[in-house]
Amino acid sequence: MKETLLQVDGMSCPSCIRHINDALRGIDGVEEVDVKLGEGTVVVKHDPSSAPMSALVAALRDAGYEARPNAA
């Protein structure tokens, strides 16, 4: 399992947390999702062989959010 930190634009309210959780947990290989609304970040614990970065970003884009890896 790998932990990936994503910077997510467009999160503005508590319902965004649910939308992001639903979008990412719908991907096979995603084990945990921790949305930090105040920081605009999401930590995803996932299996990169079945849930690669591109799938995480695409799922968030489909849910209406722009995401990118955060090096912090």
Automatic annotation (TrEMBL):
Keywords: Metal-binding. The keyword Transmembrane does not apply. It comes from the Bacteria. Residues 2-68 form the HMA domain. SUPFAM superfamilies: HMA, heavy metal-associated domain (SSF55008). GO terms for molecular function: metal ion binding. The keyword Ion transport does not apply. This is Heavy metal transport/detoxification protein. It comes from Polyangium spumosum.
